[in-house]
Specification:
single chain, 73 residues, alpha/beta, 5-stranded mixed beta sheet
Length: 73
């Protein structure tokens, strides 16, 4: 089953958003969602630093406010 905390809709894409309150970036449910629905990009928030990846972008919790400008416009 693919269970993520949020699904956000941009102008042309839908992004699954996994929220982590730690530095551990293992997100089995996000991987399951990606495998099942093949979104163009997955988003994960955590205490880790920003990392832009091929399939998943990691966004630090302090930068959550940038999601709208970076992904949804």
């Amino acid at each position: 089953m693919a269970e993520v905390e949020f699904v956000v809709q941009g102008a042309t894409s839908v992004y699954p958003l996994e929220a982590k309150a730690e530095r551990n970036l293992q997100a089995k449910s996000l991987k399951s969602y990606r495998d099942r629905f093949s979104p163009s990009k997955c988003l994960r928030t955590s205490l880790a630093e920003r990392m832009i990846g091929e399939k998943t972008d990691d966004i630090p919790l302090y930068a959550v406010s940038t999601i709208a400008a970076d992904y949804l416009s």
